[in-house]
Amino acid sequence: AQSVTQLDSQVPVFEEAPVELRCNYSSSVSVYLFWYVQYPNQGLQLLLKYLSGSTLVKGINGFEAEFNKSQTSFHLRKPSVHISDTAEYFCAVLSGGYNKLIFGAGTRLAVHP
Amino acid sequence: DTAVSQTPKYLVTQMGNDKSIKCEQNLGHDTMYWYKQDSKKFLKIMFSYNNKELIINETVPNRFSPKSPDKAHLNLHINSLELGDSAVYFCASSQVLGGGETQYFGPGTRLLVL
Prior knowledge:
Oligomer: heterodimer
Number of helices of chain A: 0
Largest interface: A-B, 23 and 27 residues
Structural class of chain A: mainly beta
Number of strands of chain B: 11
Mean pLDDT of chain B: 92
Low-confidence stretches of chain B: none
Order of helices and strands of chain A: EEEEEEEEEEEE
Structural class of chain B: mainly beta
Helix content of chain B: under 10%
Largest sheet of chain A: 6 strands, mixed
Shape of chain B: globular
Strand content of chain A: over 45%
Radius of gyration of chain B: 13 Å
Strand content of chain B: over 45%
Distance between the termini of chain A: 41 Å
């Protein structure tokens, strides 16, 4: 069965500092991987996704992620965060042929001035 | 203009009541989903419909019954509400089944059972 582990439940960081949110997945088949962001009291918004091809994926709001098959990881990075990046971030893997998203437990990014 | 909309946004009700949540998407997508987010923010799929046909039914109590009158709508009816049903319920849609299509989420319905 596929699963996703987000290694940090909370990540505090100062404004303009770089950040990395870690995600590991387990899957015995080819994977499609996603990062979603949830701002307070809102729905989920897609940041980026990996389907195939280049292992470095660029998304919205300056975020990028790198797919590493040997380490089964899909870490999310941003070189310089803003206060407005404060949110919950979810890593997810697509399971099987029915578009079932399996989510990690989420990482709360808190950006401080 | 909203892509995936849900009503109501907030729902407060008593244990034992029956309630419905409605979802509509104007993206022309074929597939719709219901997810549940618990108090610890954990997200889990409940149901998925493709062209009005149920294709995913996770181990959800049969008090929960989804209904899809057409491709653009997926409603969730909950009978005999329990305290543990308190959560945020998200509707989502995607263009086709399979292939890594992006799922677009609604704003959520915050259900509180007293």
